[in-house]
């Protein structure tokens, strides 16, 4: 067995990385509690396939829950990059929940204020910076996803990071800018 990192998850199928090479992987039995970021022990079947045998102990675990259930999102994170924007529908409770989760799991949160090209973004970013950066000491980065994402590269080097945010905040655009092979689907937000 070899140690591997789960880099993508598709239900009961995974993409794992072993010594820089990617493999399609399934689990032994019907276990599906594995998530992106997990370190696992796996056996290589052939040049493109492997089987996940066992989970290695996690450093931390990020999950979302409501009254009815919990869903594991990722594990072994160093950073949580929380993408917010003034439009289409900023939710303060979502931001605060992300910060609480990150603190509870000892994950470094970084607030990314996107869409700085919008006229109302300057005041929005100033208010967030006043509270979260100046008073609570969180790192806050302002950018326009189509132009400024290279400023994130130094923050990502050697770190396990998760990009999280509400729908329409620019996560896919940021992903495509910092990692073009992802080719994540993006859409124009028309809602005012």
- Sheet having the most strands: 5 strands, mixed, barrel
Q: Identify the overall geometry.
A: elongated
Runs in which pLDDT lies below 50 for 5 or more consecutive residues are none
Strand arrangement within the widest β-sheet reads 1-2-3-5-4
Rg over C-alpha atoms, rounded to the nearest angstrom: 18 Å
Average of the residue pLDDT scores: 89
Which class do the helix and strand fractions yield? alpha/beta
What is the terminal-to-terminal distance? 53 Å
Helical content band: 10-25%
| Beta-strand content bin | 25-35%
Quantity of strands, as a count:
11
Order of helices and strands: EEEEEEEEHEHEHHEH
- Per DSSP, the total helix count is 5
Structure description:
Strands 1-2-3-5-4 form a five-stranded mixed barrel. The chain is α/β, with parallel strands linked by helices and 192 residues long. It starts with a strand and ends in a 14-residue tail after the last helix. A hairpin with a 2-residue loop joins β2 and β3 (21-27). It has five helices and eleven strands, in the order ββββββββαβαβααβα.
């Amino acid at each position: 067995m070899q140690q591997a990192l789960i880099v993508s998850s598709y239900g009961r199928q995974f993409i794992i990385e072993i010594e820089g090479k990617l493999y399609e992987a399934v689990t032994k039995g019907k276990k599906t509690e594995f998530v992106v970021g997990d370190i696992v022990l796996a056996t290589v079947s052939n040049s493109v396939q492997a089987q996940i045998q066992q989970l290695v102990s996690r450093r931390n675990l990020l999950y979302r829950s409501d009254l009815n259930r919990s869903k594991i999102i990722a594990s072994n994170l160093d950073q949580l990059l929380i993408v917010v924007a003034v439009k289409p529908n900023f939710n303060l409770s979502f931001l605060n929940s992300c910060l609480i989760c990150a603190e509870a799991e000892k994950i470094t949160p970084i607030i990314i204020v996107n869409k700085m090209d919008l006229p109302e973004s300057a005041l929005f970013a100033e208010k967030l910076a006043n509270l979260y950066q100046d008073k609570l000491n969180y790192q806050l980065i302002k950018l326009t996803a189509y132009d400024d994402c290279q400023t994130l590269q130094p923050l990502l080097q050697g770190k396990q990071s998760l990009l999280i945010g509400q729908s329409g905040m620019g996560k896919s655009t940021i992903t495509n800018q910092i990692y073009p092979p992802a080719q994540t689907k993006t859409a124009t937000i028309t809602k005012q």
